[in-house]
Amino acid sequence: MEISYIKDGNQNIMIIKDENIDENDYKLQMIINNKIEGLVPLSIEYIDNSSILRYDLSSRISFAAMYARKHMTGKELYGFIKDIKIISDKLREYLIDIDNIMFDTEYIFFNRKTGKYEMCYRGKSEEALYINIRTLFDRLLEYIDHEDKEAVLIAYGIQQLTISGDFTMEDILQCARDNILEYKKEKEEELKVTKNIVHLDENKCEDEIEKRGIINILKKFFKKKSKYKTEDELEALKEFDYLDENENSMVVAEESNVYRQDAEEGTTILSLICPLKPIRLTAIGTEIPINIVPNHYPYLIGKSRASCDFCIDSSVISRVHLRLSEEIDGYTIEDLNSTNGTFLNGEKLKEHEVQAIKEGDRISLANLEFVVE
């Protein structure tokens, strides 16, 4: 298959030349003779006794180009998924399977005039549909904004869904909706807690705190969640676990201890925070030293500069290969469906398997080995 691009008058054209093109295919003729919503306009021509497919890309930009310099938000990702579902439904009306579509981000286009995504008919794929869709959503991990929790929830939720192969486009859309609802619910809970804290009667609060002898620990405001030893402690402190950017919220906290007054019981809960020792991954046996020192979590490692926190420019490393996470009692690693695998102390991790790591462990990304320090 040969793909090229030309300028034909006022039109931008993508041309596919393939010996396997069957101009008598009824599906191809159906698309050529009908304007099907969600498909890039297509025509067929004959040059030197061979057939070529011409796609009109005027006023269209490829998905890959569109997100080459910016990250995809959760809202944008959901809109993309909805458009794919619409395309799937429209094709079904014409008795055309969605597996006849090209799922590469280079050949999915955004129509600037309609504000919708469009896809290219290609003919029967050599790969199974679920593999093409899973590959597409694996690739989308490179494009999403990993600081956008909504986008992360949707993308990783769908990635988990597509692992089994037993799913439909409706399942994918529903998965996206479920994760959006989960995100909104969390935001609503955070907002409620923040409002409750902001509207506390400061005088009454100070009087109550002073009675219990802890007025001197109202020293700081924190902008990130603390790590507690048990889920019960976390639950007990959840009212004070969210802070707004203007530091208007109040948290009763100290660097080594956290206190909260229980409104119903009138008791004070004390929880000792044990900060985790920072870790680093040091490469073994490489000509050029490679030291990975995470400064936040989750921390993604791979060869994609756009999607990863640490880029390893190696052909054996996947675009998004490994995720390091910080838990209450230590650190974990997760293989992100990498091509050449992730190994912990010589044992290969399964796709998306999460394993705890400790100092002295050896982690291999394909043939690159690191020691945890």
How would you characterize the overall build of this protein?
The chain has about 375 residues and is of the alpha+beta class. The chain is about 30% helix and about 25% strand. It has a 6-stranded antiparallel β-sheet, with no helix packed on it. Helix 3 crosses helix 5 (about 150-160). It is globular. The model is unreliable at about 215-275 (pLDDT under 50).
Globally, the shape reads globular
Strand content: 15-25%
- Amount of helix: 25-40%
Number of helices: 8
* Widest sheet, order of strands: 11-10-20-19-16-17
Given as residue ranges, the uncertain stretches (5+ residues, pLDDT < 50) are 214-273
* Structural class by SSE content: alpha+beta
What integer is the average pLDDT?
A: 78
In short:
By secondary structure, the chain is of the alpha+beta class. The chain is 28% helix and 24% strand.
List the topology elements.
Blueprint lengths: L1 E7 L2 E7 L8 H8 L8 E6 L2 E7 L3 E3 H4 L7 H20 L14 E4 L4 E4 L9 H12 L8 H13 L7 H30 L3 H10 L19 H6 L20 E5 L6 E5 L8 E4 L6 E2 L6 E4 L7 E2 L10 E5 L4 E5 L6 E3 L2 E2 L5 E4 L4 E4 L2 E5 L1
Parallel strand pairs: 12-13
Antiparallel strand pairs: 1-2, 2-4, 3-4, 5-6, 6-7, 8-9, 10-11, 10-20, 12-14, 14-15, 15-18, 16-17, 16-19, 19-20
Helix pairs in contact: 3-5, 3-6, 5-6
